[in-house]
Amino acid sequence: MSKSLIITCKLTGEMGKGVKSHIIPRSFYEIEPQENGSIELMTNKKGEYNKRAPIGIYDQDIFIEKGEKLFDKLDSFGAELLINNFDSFKEINDSNNSLIAWSIQDYSYQTIKLFVLSVIWRAHTSKQSFFSRVDLGIHADKIKSMLLDSNPGDENQYSVNIVRWKSNDFGAMFMDPARVRFDEINYYQLYCGRYVFYIKIDKRESSKKLKKTQLTDGQDFLVVARDLEESKEFSAMRKIAILKSKQQ
Fold it and tell me: Hey, where are the domains in the chain?
């Protein structure tokens, strides 16, 4: 049994026993509560090898219990909306009747945006090597303040876009998060089960390519549909992403 570490909570600044906190919420690994399987996390980083993580990746050096509980509502909302109630989303098709997105009207802009920001902030804060390429720099403290104040900012402040793979054949998928650029604007690309989150970490206006579908207060929540098999990530994902949890 691992010993409890006394840490300074990265969120509250208070000292106490560190708790095992998942960086990406456990529900996005799509593991049933009674399952004890492990997730194989594959990486394309040079010099590193695939690893197995029991029920995903967690870190015991981020939160004490009080800090962890501050994110409970966000994680529960994200799982309820994006996993448990995804059937409530309406399909949007183009003129050729091809699926291009899903939408929903009844949701909380504040909560879903803060949920996504909390995941990228946790990834930045974690010492786990899987998230080592996430470095929010000067933006980390600002996002932390937004989380503590329950302030999601407007749609252009750390804007969020969410993509979901069309196919249900591949299950939950994970690969290293990384910084990407659209129209020279900096984003982080974070794989989260059946979803990919794009979070703008840049003071400039959102990318023109992403602006029309970014999360916007007062508008329908759009989740962009993408064909995994036809995406540029597919060949890499086949090598570095786990499709299903495995029983030990």
Answer: 70-240
